[in-house]
Amino acid sequence: MSETQLRTDVVLGVTITARDARGRIARLGPVVDAVLANHGYPPLIEKLLAEALTLTALLGALLKDPQGQMTLQAQTQGGIVDLMVCDFRAGELRGYVRFDRERLADASMNPALKELFGDGYLAITFDQPNAERYQGIVPLEGKDLAEAAQSYFAQSEQIPSIVRLAAEKRDGHWSAGGLLFQHLPEGEEGRDRLHTRLDHPDWPHVAILAGSVKAEELTDPGLPLDDLIWRLFHEEEEIRTLPAVALGKGCRCDPDYVRSVIRRFPEDERAEMVGDDGLIRVDCAFCSSSFAFPPSEVA
Ligand SMILES: [Zn+2]
To answer: Could you tell me how far CA 24 lies from the centroid of its own chain?
Structure first.
């Protein structure tokens, strides 16, 4: 990938073998605008989803199988946000948020997770072909999604990790960025973890360097990700980068699938779905695409 391609809508993998550490660094621009385009969310929800999509890209880039899927879902109770779902497959991202507009209007400027999600949980699911589905769940606590993701790795996987996320709107366009670094007993990719010492002597060093990243460095579309990695870790003996993965907006809703879902409803329920115009209409929550079928097509 050329230097320009390492600026935005991309996630890059990094290993620091001598420190038994691996990382992922991502920056998202046009892909965030594209996902948000059909939703018409207020700024605070846009920022939340921009950060969630960035986290989704970082976690998705941990999948070993290129056809694997990673889903991030916030299940909440009593919060302003009722549901947030993002997923990743082969660099394709999508996501949406369901929330209470009235309560959001009364929210503070920088609401902590508790205010947004109430008694919420973050569920992270890895689906890979030929592997068992893996899901971890942690409470949505802390100041932001990055903190919640860190507790996910600490509690659910016992992997010391550091996560940073940032998103800002510049001249009407979103730019978001994030990094994830973790300690693995064998720094190489793809090796199964047998045991992790949470107090590994090399880990605090990596965590301090990765944690020194500034929000404006993460979101600056003029700063290529490999340059940023170099800026953070240039004193290390050896840093390896993995092939970068381009990110784009993708939705897997398709008319055939929607038809098959409607057909599974009993006849009387299908009859109730018919609108005044004689058609059954279904909207995709992810991309807001609208589908309309004559009842005969889904009988
Ligand atoms: Zn869709």
So the answer is: 12
Neighbouring C-beta atoms of residue 48, cutoff 10 Å: 26
Q: How far is the CA of 291 from the centre of ligand 1 (A)?
A: 10
Q: How many CB atoms lie within 10 A of CB 276?
A: 5
Query: Rounded CA gap, 65 and 34, in Å?
Result: 26
Q: How far is the CA of 295 from the centre of ligand 1 (A)?
A: 21
pLDDT class of 185 with cuts at 50, 70, 90:
low
> Are the C-beta atoms of 159 and 151 separated by less than 8 Å?
no
Pick from 72, 123, 64: which is nearest to 90 by CA? 64
Residue 286 Cα to ligand 1 middle (Å): 5
Ramachandran region, residue 142 (left: φ > 0; alpha: ψ -120 to 50; beta: rest): left
Whether residue 53 contacts residue 176, with contact meaning beta carbons closer than 8 Å, is answered with yes
Q: How far is the CA of 37 from the centre of ligand 1 (A)?
A: 13
Q: DSSP assignment of 21-82, as one string?
A: EEEEEEEESHHHHHHHHTT---HHHHHHHHHHHHHHHHHHTT-SSTT-EEEEEEE-BBSSEE
| Torsion angle, alpha carbons of 3, 1, 37, 24, to 10 | -90
Query: Rounded CA gap, 116 and 140, in Å?
Result: 10
Q: How far is CA 134 from the centre of its chain?
A: 16
For the ranges 20-34, 174-188, 273-287, which has the lowest average pLDDT? 174-188
